[in-house]
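Throughout our pipeline, every protein is held as a single compact record rather than as scattered files. Nothing more is needed to write down the fold, since each code stands for a local backbone conformation. For reference, a complete record is included directly beneath this paragraph.
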Amino acid sequence: MPHLALWAGLGMKRASEAPLEIPGVRISWLIPEPPLSDETRSDWIRRMAQLVPHDADFIGGFSLGGMLALEQLTFFPHCRGLVLLSYAADRNSWQPYLRLLASSGLLHLLLLIPPRALLRIAIGLMKFFGKNTYRTMSAALTQWTAVETRKILHFLLQARKKELAVPLVQLIGTKDPWLRPGLDAIPIAGAGHFFFPKYKNELSRQISHWIKSLV
């Protein structure tokens, strides 16, 4: 039976918060730990890689977890494929306004704001993306300390395009405020950034079809 190891997103402390069942596929949900105070992005990614089961045939992740999986591929040469949920391997999938803010350097400047103030600003901005996104992101952004959360936001901004040696499947909601499906991703109609639990059946179907095409 193929084994899929999936990293949960920021703020998910329990695997039950990301229910996913794929017939014929064993799923291991992994919960990220916050970075240490003196830990670099690469050190944190390497430390988290130690939590990935060595017998996993496929690895992947949701949102922040997608970044972890993408960066950890080099540690698992036996990996047969990568699954990204609400995350993209290329910045071209970022919404235009987000790419503009990143390229202008404004996002980098915001990360210089003291952690607690930055967190209040970030949570306040979530109101522009609707009630559900605001409620979910407010909970996610306050699971760790403000310093840890700012560090993670900085890590996400450092992400760069990767040349992959394994098959890739990307699933992005058509109403995601930060990402857009594009030609190289499977659109999940009507979904925002957060798939669970409403779209778990569609996700299961798409991932199951993709894995079956490879095994």
Observations:
- The longest strand covers residues 168-173.
